[in-house]
Amino acid sequence: xxxxxxxxxxxxxxxxxxxxxxxxxxxxxxxxxxxxxxxxxxxxxxxxxxxxxxxxxxxxxxxxxxxxxxxxxxxxxxxxxxxxxxxxxxxxxxxxxxxxxxxxxxxxxxxxxxxxxxxxxxxxxxxxxxxxxxxxxxxxxxxxxxxxxxxxxxxxxxxxxxxxxx
Length: 166
Fold this sequence. Notes:
By secondary structure, the protein is mostly helical. Helices cover 66% and strands 2% of the residues. The longest helix is centred in the N-terminal third of the chain and has 34 residues, at 7-40. The protein is globular.
C-alpha cells in the first residue's frame, strides 16, 4: 500500500487538531466559569446555569475523546482562570455566563472553519447552542455569533477562554 498523505493533508490535520484543542481549552474554561456563575446566580436562573454547566462538561468530554482518537493528548484544564471582570452578584454572574458563551461560540466558529464532514456539523451545532445560550443570558443577539470581527464586539477576539492563572 502506498502512502498518499500530502503536505496539504498534514496541514489540514494539524489545523483541525489545533482547533479541537482550542475548543477543548475553551470548554475547560467555560466549565470553570460556570462554577463561578453557579455560586452567584439567583435562584430563578440556577436551573439554566446548571444545564449550561452540564452541556459544557459533556462537550469538553467529547472533545477530549476526539483529540485522543486523533492520537494526541488532550490539553489539560488549568487549575484556575482569571475572570474578565469581578463577579460579586447575580447580575454580574449573568454577564459572565453571556461572555463565556460568546467566547465558546468564537472558538467553535474557528473549529467550523478548520473541519469538514461530521466534525464540522458537530462544531456548527455547538456554535449554535452557545449562541442561543448567550442570547438567553444577554436578552439579545448579535448579527454573527462567534464572529467578533463581524459582530462589532471584542468578546471572541479577546481569546477562546478566560486567562489561566495557574
